[in-house]
């Protein structure tokens, strides 16, 4: 128990308190000896990361209980079933603590775990983690393998998320203002949209999916061309060479 507490950066008294609150699973016992493993350490680090984000122990216990009992987090938070199917086509990935370590090795720190939870890349599901996207996990792993610290990758991800939210706002504002304004302005609690109007909203937003992806991909590709060319020209000038 002492070694586990030291590894997690907490006191033995705190560890006992977490056990009493059932925030961590009981250890495997052989006679009078209690054996803890990497799952316990991962759970303790997760608890620490959630506490850093401002969650209370009561709230953490409720979330962990919800995950372990199979309840949907959206249900727990009181979220309604969405009108449309998910926009993204990303596939979540379940990871044990050992598998997560295989991806990022010594970069699995409390700070990086907290950042991953805060961005929304990771969620906790019992003794496992769930990464929000296979593509993002693979990209993050490859960037770390190229020598970029995970903390820098996560900060870049946070910035990309902010820009992606801004892009999404551009497209949704465009549709709301110029296509759906008549429906949205008329709709009230006393006079909600008709089934036909709701269907029209769903079809319109669904049609936006390939258009928005195409625009963003085209603009990002051209922006990368401009930036890479500018960086190359600057490097050649610094080397005393003239760009061809």
Structural overview:
This is MerR family transcriptional regulator. InterPro entries: DNA-bd_dom_put_sf (IPR009061), MerR-type_HTH_dom (IPR000551), MerR_fam (IPR047057). By secondary structure, the protein is mainly alpha-helical. It is 64% helix and 7% strand. The strands form 2 sheets. It has a 3-stranded antiparallel β-sheet with strand order 3-5-4. Strand 1 and strand 2 form a beta hairpin. Helix 3 packs across helix 7, helix 7 runs parallel beside helix 9 and helix 9 crosses helix 11. The longest helix is centred in the last third of the chain and has 44 residues. The chain is flat and about 70 Å long. The N and C termini lie far apart (65 Å). About 5% of the residues have low confidence.
Write the layout of secondary structure elements.
Elements: H1 2-8, H2 12-20, E1 28-30, E2 33-35, H3 38-52, H4 57-69, H5 73-76, E3 93-95, H6 97-104, H7 110-119, E4 122-125, E5 128-131, H8 134-145, H9 150-178, H10 181-186, H11 195-238
Antiparallel strand pairs: 1-2, 3-5, 4-5
Helix pairs in contact: 1-3, 3-7, 7-9, 9-11
